[in-house]
Design goal:
By secondary structure, the protein is α/β, with parallel strands linked by helices. The protein has 14 helices and 21 strands.
């Protein structure tokens, strides 16, 4: 097996799957990260250059090559592997998932949280699912789980219409918000794609949207909803109502939106055979996901890392901060992700980033994109009162200078690399 872009969160889960099955794995990525280092320890051979001589020499007829669209097509490895008929990550995931009882969770926000909760609920109930998750589950320290049952849990990614490679046994749609406008012409185009995903689902789709053929959750008119939601020191206590049962439970993840994600996970788990009582017992044991409102310091200063990279996600994050720390000054260190997303949602970013007393912006994380003229972090900063653009060499000093009591490290790029040095400097 060969993986081009092996360090990506989705690609690394696939690589782990084949490593666990005993396959030899070779991969390329542009730099060594904590994920690629872990994969090397697990048995993968990884190259960080375009030195084609590092390839082990496996023959095309014996080798499957999988790539991620995040890797540029001009990469030398693409030309090298053209004879191997490479396939996209989403195609490979579809081939695996569709052969089993697939439970897929889609949506522009919240799918990693809901998927991770579902893995936990089904694991606690002894259903032993296989899982491919778009984040690192704190409970297990990994984004992949190999189970022995026929259940397989996957995130259904809307980028590049990847979710349409899946034909789930059951599914959920968390939220639908405008995003990936480099792929979709408008919101209707995006909605049509989600509609097609729902049509491909062989069983129920649980959602809060108005998509056809769905079972809505989250209100008393529906089969699963929550009442008496109470914040309690970064957690939420609530009563979950599921198929006529009303059960007290807790969720140790800040943000009311995560209660909604828990309802989706509960609905899917119940459909798979988990009792309401077991769900209520298991939810308080869920330990969260890395980089999803992840606490690194809790004391005189609070340091939180979050993956938010869309205005709607930043709004949810800031709503949670306002609820937990209403009287504290907040420093938000944000790394914009993609030139196109920054351009398309400039006004939304300005509105939500302006909610912090101090806003520090890193240069845009380009990922798969080339720069767009007139789109950069300085332009974004110029519309936010007091915002500054920072760089690696002055980042820690600028954060400390704010003297904020709550520091947020936010974004989907490599901004997480600065968490450890920040933690050390603030401790």
């Amino acid at each position: 097996m060969v993986f081009l872009g092996i360090g990506g969160i989705g690609m690394s889960a696939l690589a782990r799957h084949y490593l666990r099955l005993g396959s030899a794995v070779f991969g390329y990525d542009k730099s060594r990260t904590s994920i690629t280092s872990a994969l090397e320890l697990e048995g993968a051979q990884i190259c960080y250059t375009e030195e084609l001589s590092e390839y082990p020499g496996w023959r095309p007829e014996e080798t499957t090559v999988i790539y991620t669209p995040a890797v540029p097509k001009k990469l030398a490895w693409f030309n090298f592997f053209e004879a191997y008929s490479p396939i996209k990550r989403s195609q490979a995931l579809g081939l695996i998932a569709n052969a089993r009882k697939c439970i897929a969770i889609a949506g522009t926000h919240g799918k990693t949280s809901a998927s991770s909760m579902l893995v936990h609920l089904m694991d606690q109930a002894g259903l032993d699912p296989t899982a491919f998750i778009g984040g690192i589950m704190t409970q297990t320290g990994t984004n992949y789980r190999l189970g022995n049952s026929d259940f397989i849990i996957v995130e259904a990614d809307e980028f590049d219409r990847s979710l349409l490679y899946l034909k789930p046994w059951a599914s959920a749609v968390t939220t639908i918000d405008e995003d990936h406008l480099d792929i979709y012409s408008d919101k209707k185009d995006l909605l049509d794609t989600f509609d097609a995903f729902v049509e491909q689902t062989n069983g129920p789709t649980f959602t809060g949207s108005t998509l056809d053929r769905t079972t809505q959750v989250g209100s008393p008119e529906n089969h699963c909803w929550a009442s008496d939601i109470q914040p309690q020191q970064g957690a939420y206590s609530f009563i979950i109502h599921l198929e006529g049962h009303a059960l007290q439970t807790r969720l140790h993840m800040p943000g009311r939106h995560n209660v909604y994600n828990a309802l989706l996970a509960a609905s899917l788990a119940h459909h798979a055979g988990v009792s309401p009582e077991q769900i209520a017992r298991s939810l308080p044991l869920f330990k969260g996901i890395k980089r999803r409102f992840e606490f690194h310091l809790q004391g005189a200063q609070v340091l939180i890392e979050d993956y938010a990279h869309h205005p709607t996600e930043i709004k949810s994050l800031m709503d949670s901060i306002d609820e937990l720390y209403p009287n504290e000054k907040v420093c938000l260190l944000f790394q914009p992700h993609l030139y196109s997303r920054t351009r398309d949602f400039m006004d939304g970013f300005v509105q939500q980033l302006s909610r912090a007393e101090y806003c520090l912006l890193l240069p845009i994380y380009a990922a798969r994109e080339e720069p767009i003229a007139g789109v950069n972090s300085q332009v974004l900063a110029s519309s936010i009162i007091g915002a500054k653009v920072v760089h690696e060499f002055d980042l820690i000093a600028k954060v400390k200078h704010t003297q904020a009591s709550v520091i947020l490290v936010v974004g989907a790029g490599d901004v997480g690399d600065f968490v450890s040095p920040l933690k050390e400097a603030l401790s």
